[in-house]
Amino acid sequence: MFGGGKNVLLTLKKKIKDEKLNRENKLQSNLYKKCRIVASLVIIWLLLNQTPVVADVTDNLSGSLKQLLGSREVITDESGYYSAPANAKINYLEKRIEELQEKTEVLKQIIDAK
Question: Is 88 exposed, middle or buried, given 0-12, 13-18 or 19+ CB atoms closer than 10 A?
Answer without folding.
Answer: buried
